[in-house]
Specification:
The structure holds 2 protein chains of 2 kinds. Helix content of chain A is about 0%, strand content about 55%. Chain A is built from no helices and 11 strands. In chain A, strands 2, 4, 5, 9, 10 and 11 form a 6-stranded mixed beta sheet that branches. In chain A, strand 6 and strand 7 form a beta hairpin. Chain B is about 0% helix and about 50% strand. Classes of the chains: A mainly beta, B mainly beta. The interface between A and B is medium-sized, with 23 and 25 residues.
Chain lengths: ~110, ~120
């Protein structure tokens, strides 16, 4: 069955540094991959979607890469700020193509 | 972006009672909505896909008679947790998409506590 792994449960970095989060998946070849941000006690908020024919996508300080050979996506936040502290989730469409399934998430803490 | 509203945000109920959670798409029509459950420090687990005008599709291991889903209109899906037990205490979140193969919009979530 499909499996999504976000290797680090927690990542602590200093303000101004670049945060890099990893998402690996197995037993599946998704047409696209998505990243979401979730704050405590809230629903996830969409950040970026990258399709299988795209190597990289950017939005302001965010950058996502998608390597379908390695079955991996990297999510970067440059010039990180304390306000970026949250849990970041990667998501793929399920094999039925009907819904999103999520990784466990990486909780990022940016200290000033 | 599109807005999905979920109500209530918190509910406490007694064991054995039923609780209804509403999920509304405020500025778009959603033929399909999704219900997730999230335990502390765990990922969102898909419970079911709610289809307007037809039966919901439940994921393996989710009891359809316990978690009743009704999608009576293009903007409203409801999840009813029947005969709730303390182990049903969790964070329930709904989502919807404006179009297929695009991003999902999530409700604020409902924290259910069964005592």
């Amino acid at each position: 069955s499909q499996k999504i792994e976000q290797n680090s449960e927690a990542l602590n970095i200093q303000e101004g540094k670049t945060a890099t989060l990893t998402c690996n998946y197995t037993n599946y070849s998704p047409a696209y991959l998505q990243w979401y941000r979730q704050d405590p006690g809230r629903g996830p908020v969409f950040l970026l979607l990258i399709r299988e024919n795209e190597k990289e996508k950017r939005k302001e300080r965010l950058k996502v890469t998608f390597d379908t050979t390695l079955k991996q996506s990297l999510f970067h936040i440059t010039a990180s700020q304390p306000a970026d502290s949250a849990t970041y989730l990667c998501a793929l469409r399920n094999q039925a193509g009907t819904a999103l399934i999520f990784g466990k998430g990486t909780t990022l803490s940016v200290s000033s | 972006g599109a807005v999905v509203s979920q109500h209530p945000s918190r509910v406490i109920c007694k064991s054995g009672t039923s609780v209804k959670i509403e999920c509304r798409s405020l500025d778009f029509q959603a033929t399909t909505m999704f219900w997730y459950r999230q335990f502390p420090k765990q990922s969102l687990m898909l419970m079911a896909t709610s289809n307007e005008g037809s039966k919901a599709t439940y994921e393996q291991g989710v009891e359809k008679d316990k978690f009743l889903i009704n999608h009576a209109s293009l903007t409203l899906s409801t999840l009813t947790v029947t005969s709730a037990h303390p182990e049903d205490s969790s964070f329930y979140i709904c989502s919807a998409r404006v179009q297929e193969n695009t991003e999902a919009f999530f409700g604020q979530g409902t924290r259910l506590t069964v005592v």
